[in-house]
Amino acid sequence: MAGGDVIGRARAIVGPAQVLCEPADTAPFLADWRGRYRGTALGVVHPADAAQVAAVVRLCAETGTPLVPQGGNTGVVGGAIPDASGRSLVLCLSRLNRVREVDPVGDSLTVEAGCTLAAVQAAAEAAGRLFPMSLGSEGSCQIGGTIATNAGGTAVLRYGPMRDLVLGLEVVLPDGTLWDGLRALRKDNTGYALKHLFIGAEGTLGIVTAATLKLFPRPRSSATAFLALASLEAALEVFSRLRGTLGDRVTTAEILSEAQLAAVLAHVPGTVRPLATPAPWCLLAEVTDPMAGLDLAGALEAVLAEGLEDGSIADALVARSEAQAAALWKLRHSVSEANRKSGIVIGHDTAVPTARIPDFVVRATAAIAAVRADARVMAVGHIGDGNIHLVAILPESARTTGKPLEPAAQAISAAVHRVAVELGGTISAEHGIGQSGRDALAVFKGPAEMALMDGIKRLFDPRGIMNPGKVVGPATP
Amino acid sequence: MAGGDVIGRARAIVGPAQVLCEPADTAPFLADWRGRYRGTALGVVHPADAAQVAAVVRLCAETGTPLVPQGGNTGVVGGAIPDASGRSLVLCLSRLNRVREVDPVGDSLTVEAGCTLAAVQAAAEAAGRLFPMSLGSEGSCQIGGTIATNAGGTAVLRYGPMRDLVLGLEVVLPDGTLWDGLRALRKDNTGYALKHLFIGAEGTLGIVTAATLKLFPRPRSSATAFLALASLEAALEVFSRLRGTLGDRVTTAEILSEAQLAAVLAHVPGTVRPLATPAPWCLLAEVTDPMAGLDLAGALEAVLAEGLEDGSIADALVARSEAQAAALWKLRHSVSEANRKSGIVIGHDTAVPTARIPDFVVRATAAIAAVRADARVMAVGHIGDGNIHLVAILPESARTTGKPLEPAAQAISAAVHRVAVELGGTISAEHGIGQSGRDALAVFKGPAEMALMDGIKRLFDPRGIMNPGKVVGPATP
């Protein structure tokens, strides 16, 4: 079928105004926010509800048209950007943005895929509850995208990634069938865990149109600390002591290397060094509790005092005001901005078993240096999850040497990934595979796992129309 | 191939002494512990390690021999019992019982499938950590079985079911390939969540041979309360208040109907009524915290005082000693024994969204009465999970009326299941499907979901040898 007919039929489904074809209109949907991935498309379709999504999917199935679902377009692996063929439809979920139900007794809420994470947080708050996921992009990322990528963020330590927060899903399958799996159940042992296949599948097995999510009690006490540490071994010891003593009160444990902190201080206005003496590592820890009026700052101080005494902590500060806590958080939230201003960023999303973090950082840093002696290495990450983002930064002058940068970037990433996998780790902890990790996936996964994943892709999407070229499966239908 | 040849080749793999064929030897493996399911088999095979499991699976794949994995044989749905054909091999995992690794820094341990749950708990405790799953059968159930059935128990409220406790799996696939998915990672977004397919699949997609599990800080403070409640609505209100105030400290919230409590008191020696006045419902709540020296009894009392004041709690008791707490727990743990002594037990494993529990109990109780006026109904369950086990008890005299009991039992279960599904619930919250739920599954799941599950079964196990007749797929290879 000619592309024009597909567009005509899509317009008949969603209304003429909801199919964009003019380059000026489609441009924002055809590139990611960092400008690393660009594609072209027949058009960009904005369905109003799950029934229209299903009708568009049926149209694509019938005509063999590749379909690229897109939420807030805040991903970093190119998972929501079409290829260059110009044959695809981009399907935007943003009009599916209703909060369908809030159930405070069952501690759950049901929202459509196009709700922003911030809107979901607000709906939970209005019901006196917490939806705990916290991401830098929460104002614009959509809940369907966070499910498709199994998003992480700074609260994973306490509440788990998106996978742990989903009770049920509504999904349009690749043949256009609408599967109602919107169960608000805490326990359900009736066969295979289908919802877990769609979570993290990045739209390659179906399109999430709504989800029932878990809610939690709101924290009513909290405290924030900033620690200076001599080594990653010390950081692990302190984290272990915090968790062993305070348990799940430890909501966040973010680690930054001194190079990373220095980059933030150098490039982001309004940031200040919290502790006078630089140390190789610093740790930002937050503890929260649903009970009101607890002295969590005191509890934190008691645990930290042990570490200060035995020397595992070089220096420490417990925030004495919300403003002071916010200033500490600003350091963490400024990392991306600081790195962009530091040079050419080659980021990674590896995780290793927690105990292997020190070994990983040493070996991966050396591996980067072996590829490019001019690379500076920053480290920022979630120490309790084993998820350290090692960021190689090349000087801006590297753009003007005449040598293309892409091979160097690929060699650096391959080296970092190799170290992670050798230590029992993963090449993607929370960002997903999308386009960027597709080749590496085939290298680092064993053949048994690749065969099972390819088989699942073929089973769910025999025509290969669902987000082709992402994760696994044929790159074109 | 003749059965004798299969046995001969199995003996060559695992050693002659590890293949049982004599009826006196095989009998314990061919019936479940309650005596409801019986089968026959070519033999019962006891491999020593994952490589031998893989070799036995390859033998079965090559010869089309049905293979029934069995752990501690403590299940209640017939999932580990072969059919009556006599063509199957039963594969016991009990010799795979090593603790391979304990990682206190990463809060994980890796154990083989044949370790009992109690052995896993003990290994965690030896490392100063908690493995939180708690089941009545923990002394004999094996960790592979708890993974295959996604077991629940009394700590699900706080720590989740087995699915939430598994970091990685080692699985022998139906073609005999050993898949090493033993990752000790808290976050891993590299494609489809294969481990979640094997968890809860009841051995129909492969055989779990080892698992990496999450560990937690050990509780160092705890308190236990027993409440008398006028209604299930009051129970939900009190639970909501407990959780909203104390958060995840609320580890357990078990509810019993007065009829259930009375049956325990009548039939189990050494049990005593904790509160003088009978009330329609009672709630056993436990709160724990990893911090030492906390006054959790005081915190509990403060929350309960509000409920006593506004009338939502009729009466309450907070245990003042470990002995008193143990006496309260004995009431809960005596339910199965009491029910067996009360008459002919027809149990159920439904869950509904928490807010629907009162409606479910009223309607399902009426539905049971409509089938059998002589049925007494007990209710016991995990109120925070929505998982209420409604138990219909027929008088022993019903055995001697000449009318067969099985149709009445089936009609009762169908009625209870129908009410649960109408209220957005499930026919199995924690026990699984096995043989007993197979027909009901096809009735209560929609066609889209059944088609996906059947497709996954065919994809993973095209020969249909893996635990045939359980959950989904053809009943024989």
From TrEMBL, chains A, B:
One annotated GO biological process: respiratory electron transport chain
InterPro entries per UniProt: FAD-bd_oxidored_4_C (IPR004113), FAD-bd_PCMH (IPR016166), FAD-bd_PCMH-like_sf (IPR036318), FAD-bd_PCMH_sub1 (IPR016167), FAD-bd_PCMH_sub2 (IPR016169), FAD-linked_Oxase-like_C (IPR016164), FAD-oxidored/transferase_4 (IPR051264), Oxid_FAD_bind_N (IPR006094)
Molecular function via GO: catalytic activity; FAD binding
Source species of the chain: Azospirillum thiophilum
PANTHER family: BLL6224 PROTEIN (PTHR43716:SF2), D-2-HYDROXYGLUTARATE DEHYDROGENASE, MITOCHONDRIAL (PTHR43716)
Keyword Cytoplasm: no
Cofactors named for this entry: FAD
Keywords tagged on the record: FAD, Flavoprotein
UniProt KW Cell wall biogenesis/degradation keyword: no
Protein name: FAD-binding PCMH-type domain-containing protein
Any matching Pfam family: FAD_binding_4
Family recorded in the similarity comment: Belongs to the FAD-binding oxidoreductase/transferase type 4 family.
Residues in FAD-binding PCMH-type domain copies: 37-218
